[in-house]
Predict the structure.
Amino acid sequence: MKAVVANKDGKISIEEVALPQLQDGQIEIRTSCSLISPGTELHYVNEAAKSSTDHYLGYCASGYVEKVGNHVNGFSIGDRVIAMGWQYAIHAERICVPQRLCVVIPDSLPFDKAVFANLTATALHAIHRASLSKKERVLIIGAGLVGQLVAQCAQVYKSDVYLADISEGRLQAAKDAGIHKVFNPLKKALADSALNATNGKGFNTVFLCNTGDNTSIIQDSIRLLANSPDGQKRGKIIGVGRFKASIDFNVSMGNVDIRYASRCGTGYRDDDYVHGRLDYLPPPGEASVDSNLKACLNLIHEGKICMNSIHTHRIKFNDALFAYELFQNPDHVIGVTLHYE
């Protein structure tokens, strides 16, 4: 079968690889569609070059169940499913994925919409990590795919949502999806725009969905948080993207919570959990990866997550190299799917 591989020389290629071997607790899937997660995948392209080790790319897919392994419940041959998992739900013609990283797709929902549930689960987990409540003023910095999904999930939670990015194309996509309060820091300083938009009240929560050096952005985010009655800053900053930052912790920060939202729910990287060999409860206010996947698939099915403006490109699997080249000009590229049929 064919798969997308990041080579140790730092290049991406489509290669002939061995078929995966179905294990207990897994289902084998004939891939129909997969979703590129640019931030994570391009990171591993660089990692492949640094480590001189090849990496399979991709972790969000959808397709038809071809085989069902031992000790699997809830799946049958022919089911249409989404599948998630690094080194499992790769960009390949056939994949074998642990059962708790798969969900059956409603009949009326096409593969290329359903597959977005996988990254939406990352966004929903970030919402849970923020302990988000209704009517909070929320700022999302970074309007890439995950940032767009965090903004839409926050809107589902009835938050007052604001979004900042330096790309006019991405901001327009957000507007088309119903996120109307947007800022471009290249046009006017973020702090000025954001504080003016909230009449000086500031934000209860800031999500950082960008990459690079966030030292100055975190400093701005602290200044943008709302004041409590005693005049001290109080709010939450949630890291979602891959970034670096240097933070000077001192009393002048106020009572600020800085948290990171890793991956897409409790149990995601636990092989025993995702294969169904182990059970445990998530922390209060959070959810397991399988619960998040089901919830996000339902949000998409109910039309609460809008795909029309953020699903920007549909590319044939055999043209996958072209798909990655698109991200060199990210202004008009957000959600890119690969199609195998």
Notes: Residues 30 and 94 are 5 Å apart (CA to CA). The mean pLDDT is 94. Residues 131-260 form a domain with the Rossmann fold fold (CATH 3.40.50.720).
